[in-house]
Amino acid sequence: MKINLAFYIGFFLIAGSTGSFGAEVDSIQRGQYLAKVAGCVTCHTEKGGEVLSGGRAFMTPFGTFYTPNITPDNKTGIGSWSDKQFVRAVRHGRRPDGKNYFPAFPYTSFTKMTTADVLAIRAYLKSVTPIAKINLPQKVKKPFTRFAVNFWKLLYFRSGALAPIDGQSALFNRGAYLADAVMHCAECHTPRDGLGGPLVDKYLAGMKKGIVGDKAVPNITRDQTTGLGSWSRDDYLTLLKTGETPDGDNMGGEMKEVIKETSALTAEDQLALVEYLMQVKAVKNKVD
Ligand code: HEC
Ligand code: HEC
Questions:
Q1: How would you class 42 by CB atoms within 10 Å of its CB: exposed for 0-12, middle for 13-18, buried for 19 or more?
Q2: Domain around 205
Q3: Is-contact 72 79, C-beta < 8 A?
Q4: Which of 6-10, 25-29, 94-98, 112-116 comes out lowest in average pLDDT?
Q5: In angstroms, what is the span from residue 7 Cα to ligand 2's centroid?
Q6: Is the beta carbon of 39 within 6 A of some atom in ligand 1?
Q7: Which of 116, 141, 204, 231 is deepest in the core (most CB within 10 A)?
Q8: Whether residue 147 has pLDDT greater than 50
Q9: Do 105 and 46 fall into the same domain?
Q10: Whose CA is closest to atom 23 on ligand 2?
Q11: Number of separate domains in the chain
Protein backbone atom coordinates (compact mmCIF):
# COMPACT_ATOMS: atom_id res chain seq x y z
CA MET A 1 0.00 0.00 0.00
CA LYS A 2 2.80 2.39 1.00
CA ILE A 3 4.77 1.54 -2.12
CA ASN A 4 1.71 2.03 -4.28
CA LEU A 5 1.05 5.43 -2.82
CA ALA A 6 4.66 6.50 -3.36
CA PHE A 7 4.45 5.17 -6.89
CA TYR A 8 1.31 7.13 -7.65
CA ILE A 9 2.65 10.32 -6.14
CA GLY A 10 5.85 9.89 -8.12
CA PHE A 11 3.89 9.19 -11.27
CA PHE A 12 1.79 12.31 -10.90
CA LEU A 13 4.82 14.47 -10.14
CA ILE A 14 6.62 13.27 -13.26
CA ALA A 15 3.52 13.44 -15.45
CA GLY A 16 2.76 16.90 -14.07
CA SER A 17 6.22 18.25 -14.70
CA THR A 18 6.57 16.81 -18.21
CA GLY A 19 3.13 18.25 -18.92
CA SER A 20 4.19 21.78 -18.07
CA PHE A 21 7.57 21.25 -19.71
CA GLY A 22 5.74 20.27 -22.90
CA ALA A 23 3.58 23.39 -22.66
CA GLU A 24 6.71 25.52 -22.25
CA VAL A 25 8.28 24.01 -25.38
CA ASP A 26 5.02 24.60 -27.30
CA SER A 27 4.97 28.18 -26.19
CA ILE A 28 8.61 28.76 -27.23
CA GLN A 29 7.91 27.26 -30.66
CA ARG A 30 4.78 29.36 -31.15
CA GLY A 31 6.74 32.40 -29.97
CA GLN A 32 9.54 31.68 -32.42
CA TYR A 33 7.05 31.45 -35.27
CA LEU A 34 5.33 34.69 -34.25
CA ALA A 35 8.65 36.53 -33.76
CA LYS A 36 9.64 35.54 -37.28
CA VAL A 37 6.40 36.47 -39.04
CA ALA A 38 5.87 39.64 -36.95
CA GLY A 39 9.25 40.95 -38.06
CA CYS A 40 10.72 41.12 -34.54
CA VAL A 41 13.75 39.23 -35.81
CA THR A 42 14.09 41.28 -39.02
CA CYS A 43 13.80 44.68 -37.36
CA HIS A 44 15.90 43.81 -34.33
CA THR A 45 18.82 42.32 -36.28
CA GLU A 46 21.41 44.49 -37.98
CA LYS A 47 22.85 43.37 -41.31
CA GLY A 48 25.60 40.92 -40.42
CA GLY A 49 24.82 41.36 -36.72
CA GLU A 50 23.90 38.81 -34.08
CA VAL A 51 20.25 37.75 -34.15
CA LEU A 52 17.96 40.04 -32.10
CA SER A 53 20.84 42.14 -30.76
CA GLY A 54 19.47 45.30 -32.43
CA GLY A 55 21.30 48.18 -34.10
CA ARG A 56 19.33 48.24 -37.34
CA ALA A 57 18.66 51.83 -38.43
CA PHE A 58 15.37 53.17 -39.78
CA MET A 59 15.41 56.52 -41.54
CA THR A 60 12.00 58.20 -41.33
CA PRO A 61 10.74 61.79 -41.74
CA PHE A 62 10.74 61.97 -37.92
CA GLY A 63 14.35 61.00 -37.42
CA THR A 64 16.58 57.94 -37.42
CA PHE A 65 15.58 55.12 -35.12
CA TYR A 66 17.83 52.29 -34.03
CA THR A 67 16.34 49.04 -32.81
CA PRO A 68 17.43 47.96 -29.33
CA ASN A 69 18.97 44.68 -28.22
CA ILE A 70 16.14 42.32 -27.21
CA THR A 71 18.27 39.27 -26.40
CA PRO A 72 18.15 38.10 -22.75
CA ASP A 73 21.44 39.81 -21.82
CA ASN A 74 20.91 41.25 -18.33
CA LYS A 75 22.81 44.51 -18.81
CA THR A 76 22.38 45.50 -22.46
CA GLY A 77 19.34 43.42 -23.45
CA ILE A 78 16.01 42.71 -21.76
CA GLY A 79 17.11 39.74 -19.63
CA SER A 80 16.24 41.50 -16.37
CA TRP A 81 12.73 42.52 -17.47
CA SER A 82 9.60 41.01 -15.95
CA ASP A 83 6.97 39.54 -18.27
CA LYS A 84 4.71 42.40 -17.25
CA GLN A 85 7.26 44.99 -18.40
CA PHE A 86 7.60 43.12 -21.68
CA VAL A 87 3.84 43.09 -22.31
CA ARG A 88 3.65 46.79 -21.41
CA ALA A 89 6.37 47.57 -23.97
CA VAL A 90 4.94 45.51 -26.83
CA ARG A 91 1.22 46.14 -26.30
CA HIS A 92 1.28 49.64 -24.78
CA GLY A 93 4.48 51.25 -26.06
CA ARG A 94 5.77 52.02 -22.58
CA ARG A 95 9.29 51.57 -21.26
CA PRO A 96 9.96 50.07 -17.83
CA ASP A 97 10.70 53.64 -16.57
CA GLY A 98 7.24 54.76 -17.75
CA LYS A 99 8.42 56.81 -20.76
CA ASN A 100 6.97 56.21 -24.22
CA TYR A 101 8.45 54.35 -27.11
CA PHE A 102 8.37 56.02 -30.50
CA PRO A 103 5.80 54.47 -32.79
CA ALA A 104 8.61 53.39 -35.17
CA PHE A 105 8.24 50.34 -32.91
CA PRO A 106 4.87 49.21 -34.33
CA TYR A 107 3.09 48.77 -31.01
CA THR A 108 0.01 50.45 -32.48
CA SER A 109 -0.41 47.14 -34.31
CA PHE A 110 1.08 44.82 -31.68
CA THR A 111 -1.44 46.05 -29.09
CA LYS A 112 -3.95 44.03 -31.12
CA MET A 113 -2.11 40.79 -30.31
CA THR A 114 -3.35 38.66 -27.43
CA THR A 115 -1.32 38.75 -24.22
CA ALA A 116 -0.88 34.97 -24.58
CA ASP A 117 0.82 35.43 -27.96
CA VAL A 118 3.03 38.22 -26.63
CA LEU A 119 4.06 36.00 -23.72
CA ALA A 120 4.86 33.18 -26.17
CA ILE A 121 7.20 35.59 -27.98
CA ARG A 122 8.69 36.48 -24.62
CA ALA A 123 9.28 32.77 -23.86
CA TYR A 124 11.10 32.43 -27.17
CA LEU A 125 13.18 35.58 -26.62
CA LYS A 126 14.27 34.23 -23.22
CA SER A 127 15.54 31.09 -24.96
CA VAL A 128 17.93 32.78 -27.42
CA THR A 129 21.64 33.39 -26.77
CA PRO A 130 22.21 36.57 -24.75
CA ILE A 131 24.38 39.07 -26.63
CA ALA A 132 26.13 41.96 -24.89
CA LYS A 133 25.64 44.95 -27.18
CA ILE A 134 24.86 48.48 -26.04
CA ASN A 135 21.86 50.25 -27.62
CA LEU A 136 22.37 53.28 -29.84
CA PRO A 137 20.54 56.51 -28.89
CA GLN A 138 17.59 57.54 -31.08
CA LYS A 139 18.13 60.60 -33.30
CA VAL A 140 14.72 62.19 -33.33
CA LYS A 141 13.85 65.53 -34.92
CA LYS A 142 12.14 68.20 -32.89
CA PRO A 143 9.37 68.29 -31.69
CA PHE A 144 9.13 64.50 -31.56
CA THR A 145 10.27 63.73 -28.02
CA ARG A 146 9.23 60.74 -25.91
CA PHE A 147 7.09 63.16 -23.96
CA ALA A 148 5.37 64.42 -27.14
CA VAL A 149 4.44 60.82 -27.91
CA ASN A 150 1.85 61.18 -25.11
CA PHE A 151 -0.11 63.56 -27.36
CA TRP A 152 0.47 61.38 -30.38
CA LYS A 153 -0.93 58.42 -28.44
CA LEU A 154 -4.00 60.43 -27.42
CA LEU A 155 -4.69 61.12 -31.08
CA TYR A 156 -3.81 57.83 -32.69
CA PHE A 157 -3.23 55.00 -30.25
CA ARG A 158 -6.03 52.71 -29.07
CA SER A 159 -4.86 49.78 -26.98
CA GLY A 160 -6.60 46.42 -26.92
CA ALA A 161 -6.54 43.02 -28.60
CA LEU A 162 -8.32 42.69 -31.94
CA ALA A 163 -11.83 41.33 -31.47
CA PRO A 164 -12.97 38.69 -33.97
CA ILE A 165 -15.83 39.92 -36.18
CA ASP A 166 -19.11 38.11 -35.55
CA GLY A 167 -20.50 36.40 -38.60
CA GLN A 168 -17.08 36.12 -40.25
CA SER A 169 -15.35 32.74 -40.62
CA ALA A 170 -12.54 31.61 -38.33
CA LEU A 171 -10.27 31.74 -41.39
CA PHE A 172 -11.13 35.40 -42.08
CA ASN A 173 -10.63 36.35 -38.43
CA ARG A 174 -7.27 34.59 -38.31
CA GLY A 175 -6.31 36.49 -41.49
CA ALA A 176 -7.39 39.80 -39.95
CA TYR A 177 -5.34 39.02 -36.85
CA LEU A 178 -2.27 38.21 -38.94
CA ALA A 179 -2.62 41.31 -41.15
CA ASP A 180 -3.48 43.87 -38.48
CA ALA A 181 -2.01 42.62 -35.20
CA VAL A 182 0.99 40.46 -36.05
CA MET A 183 2.29 41.37 -39.51
CA HIS A 184 1.22 45.03 -39.37
CA CYS A 185 0.62 45.45 -43.13
CA ALA A 186 -1.11 48.79 -42.45
CA GLU A 187 2.03 50.31 -40.89
CA CYS A 188 3.36 50.67 -44.44
CA HIS A 189 0.30 50.40 -46.70
CA THR A 190 -2.00 52.90 -44.95
CA PRO A 191 -1.13 56.55 -45.76
CA ARG A 192 -0.39 58.89 -42.85
CA ASP A 193 -1.01 62.51 -42.02
CA GLY A 194 1.73 65.06 -41.24
CA LEU A 195 2.11 63.79 -37.68
CA GLY A 196 2.52 60.21 -38.79
CA GLY A 197 -0.98 59.16 -37.77
CA PRO A 198 -2.74 56.64 -40.04
CA LEU A 199 -5.58 57.91 -42.26
CA VAL A 200 -8.08 55.24 -41.29
CA ASP A 201 -10.50 55.92 -44.14
CA LYS A 202 -7.63 55.09 -46.52
CA TYR A 203 -6.86 51.77 -44.85
CA LEU A 204 -4.27 49.90 -47.00
CA ALA A 205 -4.74 52.35 -49.90
CA GLY A 206 -1.00 53.06 -50.33
CA MET A 207 0.95 56.26 -50.96
CA LYS A 208 3.43 57.79 -53.40
CA LYS A 209 6.27 57.89 -50.92
CA GLY A 210 6.41 55.44 -48.06
CA ILE A 211 7.39 56.30 -44.50
CA VAL A 212 10.47 54.10 -44.82
CA GLY A 213 12.39 53.70 -48.06
CA ASP A 214 11.57 55.82 -51.11
CA LYS A 215 9.45 53.42 -53.14
CA ALA A 216 5.77 54.00 -53.71
CA VAL A 217 3.71 51.74 -51.49
CA PRO A 218 0.95 50.15 -53.60
CA ASN A 219 -2.76 50.33 -52.94
CA ILE A 220 -3.65 46.80 -51.78
CA THR A 221 -7.39 47.37 -51.33
CA ARG A 222 -9.84 45.65 -53.68
CA ASP A 223 -10.27 48.74 -55.91
CA GLN A 224 -10.47 47.56 -59.54
CA THR A 225 -8.35 50.26 -61.16
CA THR A 226 -5.95 51.60 -58.53
CA GLY A 227 -5.80 48.55 -56.23
CA LEU A 228 -5.83 44.75 -56.44
CA GLY A 229 -9.52 44.31 -57.26
CA SER A 230 -8.66 42.05 -60.19
CA TRP A 231 -6.35 39.71 -58.22
CA SER A 232 -7.51 36.13 -57.67
CA ARG A 233 -6.93 34.01 -54.59
CA ASP A 234 -4.03 32.32 -56.40
CA ASP A 235 -2.48 35.68 -57.30
CA TYR A 236 -2.33 36.61 -53.61
CA LEU A 237 -1.08 33.20 -52.62
CA THR A 238 1.76 33.30 -55.17
CA LEU A 239 2.76 36.77 -53.97
CA LEU A 240 2.84 35.71 -50.31
CA LYS A 241 4.83 32.57 -51.12
CA THR A 242 7.29 33.87 -53.72
CA GLY A 243 7.02 37.66 -53.95
CA GLU A 244 5.92 37.46 -57.59
CA THR A 245 2.98 39.53 -58.89
CA PRO A 246 0.58 38.42 -61.67
CA ASP A 247 2.58 40.66 -64.09
CA GLY A 248 5.75 38.73 -63.27
CA ASP A 249 7.30 41.55 -61.21
CA ASN A 250 9.26 40.65 -58.12
CA MET A 251 8.93 42.52 -54.87
CA GLY A 252 11.71 44.95 -54.04
CA GLY A 253 12.27 47.51 -51.31
CA GLU A 254 10.72 46.96 -47.93
CA MET A 255 8.32 44.36 -49.25
CA LYS A 256 11.19 41.99 -50.03
CA GLU A 257 11.75 41.54 -46.28
CA VAL A 258 8.02 41.10 -45.70
CA ILE A 259 7.92 38.25 -48.26
CA LYS A 260 10.50 36.39 -46.14
CA GLU A 261 7.88 36.54 -43.41
CA THR A 262 4.79 35.72 -45.49
CA SER A 263 6.62 32.79 -47.09
CA ALA A 264 7.40 31.47 -43.59
CA LEU A 265 3.70 31.36 -42.70
CA THR A 266 2.08 27.92 -42.44
CA ALA A 267 -0.08 26.99 -45.46
CA GLU A 268 -3.18 27.51 -43.34
CA ASP A 269 -2.06 30.98 -42.21
CA GLN A 270 -1.32 31.93 -45.82
CA LEU A 271 -4.87 30.93 -46.78
CA ALA A 272 -6.21 32.93 -43.85
CA LEU A 273 -4.30 36.05 -44.89
CA VAL A 274 -5.57 35.68 -48.47
CA GLU A 275 -9.14 35.22 -47.25
CA TYR A 276 -8.82 38.52 -45.41
CA LEU A 277 -7.07 40.43 -48.22
CA MET A 278 -9.78 39.34 -50.71
CA GLN A 279 -12.29 41.27 -48.59
CA VAL A 280 -10.43 44.53 -47.90
CA LYS A 281 -12.79 47.42 -48.69
CA ALA A 282 -12.01 49.03 -52.06
CA VAL A 283 -10.55 52.56 -51.79
CA LYS A 284 -9.72 54.51 -54.94
CA ASN A 285 -6.21 55.96 -54.55
CA LYS A 286 -3.71 56.20 -57.37
CA VAL A 287 -0.13 55.98 -56.13
CA ASP A 288 1.97 55.51 -59.27
C1 HEC B 1 9.50 48.03 -37.91
C2 HEC B 1 10.56 47.61 -37.03
C3 HEC B 1 10.21 46.89 -35.74
C4 HEC B 1 9.49 45.72 -35.60
C5 HEC B 1 8.78 44.91 -36.68
C6 HEC B 1 9.58 45.38 -34.20
N7 HEC B 1 10.27 46.32 -33.51
FE8 HEC B 1 10.71 46.27 -31.52
N9 HEC B 1 11.41 48.18 -31.66
C10 HEC B 1 11.62 48.89 -32.82
C11 HEC B 1 12.20 50.19 -32.52
C12 HEC B 1 12.58 51.26 -33.53
C13 HEC B 1 12.31 50.25 -31.10
C14 HEC B 1 12.85 51.42 -30.27
C15 HEC B 1 11.74 52.41 -29.99
C16 HEC B 1 12.17 53.54 -29.09
O17 HEC B 1 13.35 53.61 -28.70
O18 HEC B 1 11.33 54.36 -28.75
C19 HEC B 1 11.83 48.95 -30.61
C20 HEC B 1 11.80 48.60 -29.26
C21 HEC B 1 11.44 47.35 -28.77
C22 HEC B 1 11.52 46.96 -27.38
C23 HEC B 1 12.03 47.79 -26.24
C24 HEC B 1 13.43 47.38 -25.86
C25 HEC B 1 14.13 48.26 -24.86
O26 HEC B 1 15.31 48.00 -24.56
O27 HEC B 1 13.56 49.23 -24.36
C28 HEC B 1 11.06 45.66 -27.31
C29 HEC B 1 10.93 44.80 -26.07
C30 HEC B 1 10.71 45.27 -28.65
N31 HEC B 1 10.97 46.31 -29.52
C32 HEC B 1 10.20 44.03 -28.98
C33 HEC B 1 9.71 43.72 -30.24
C34 HEC B 1 8.96 42.52 -30.53
C35 HEC B 1 8.64 41.43 -29.53
C36 HEC B 1 8.62 42.56 -31.84
C37 HEC B 1 7.79 41.59 -32.65
C38 HEC B 1 6.48 41.30 -32.12
C39 HEC B 1 9.17 43.81 -32.37
N40 HEC B 1 9.83 44.47 -31.37
C41 HEC B 1 9.04 44.22 -33.68
C42 HEC B 1 11.33 48.44 -34.10
C43 HEC B 1 10.65 47.28 -34.41
C1 HEC C 1 7.81 47.70 -44.31
C2 HEC C 1 6.76 48.16 -45.18
C3 HEC C 1 5.74 47.15 -45.67
C4 HEC C 1 5.03 46.24 -44.94
C5 HEC C 1 5.06 46.00 -43.43
C6 HEC C 1 4.17 45.55 -45.87
N7 HEC C 1 4.36 46.01 -47.14
FE8 HEC C 1 3.49 45.27 -48.84
N9 HEC C 1 4.64 46.52 -49.97
C10 HEC C 1 5.53 47.47 -49.49
C11 HEC C 1 6.21 48.10 -50.61
C12 HEC C 1 7.26 49.22 -50.53
C13 HEC C 1 5.71 47.48 -51.78
C14 HEC C 1 6.13 47.76 -53.22
C15 HEC C 1 7.27 46.85 -53.57
C16 HEC C 1 7.80 47.07 -54.96
O17 HEC C 1 7.37 48.00 -55.64
O18 HEC C 1 8.68 46.29 -55.36
C19 HEC C 1 4.71 46.49 -51.34
C20 HEC C 1 3.98 45.67 -52.19
C21 HEC C 1 2.95 44.83 -51.80
C22 HEC C 1 2.08 44.10 -52.71
C23 HEC C 1 2.12 44.11 -54.24
C24 HEC C 1 1.06 45.03 -54.79
C25 HEC C 1 1.18 45.29 -56.26
O26 HEC C 1 0.39 46.13 -56.74
O27 HEC C 1 2.01 44.72 -56.94
C28 HEC C 1 1.18 43.40 -51.92
C29 HEC C 1 0.06 42.50 -52.38
C30 HEC C 1 1.52 43.68 -50.56
N31 HEC C 1 2.60 44.55 -50.51
C32 HEC C 1 0.86 43.15 -49.47
C33 HEC C 1 1.30 43.28 -48.16
C34 HEC C 1 0.74 42.54 -47.04
C35 HEC C 1 -0.39 41.53 -47.13
C36 HEC C 1 1.43 42.92 -45.93
C37 HEC C 1 1.30 42.38 -44.52
C38 HEC C 1 1.48 40.94 -44.41
C39 HEC C 1 2.42 43.91 -46.36
N40 HEC C 1 2.31 44.10 -47.71
C41 HEC C 1 3.30 44.54 -45.49
C42 HEC C 1 5.77 47.75 -48.16
C43 HEC C 1 5.31 47.00 -47.07
A1: middle
A2: 170-277
A3: yes
A4: 6-10
A5: 59
A6: yes
A7: 204
A8: yes
A9: yes
A10: 218
A11: 2
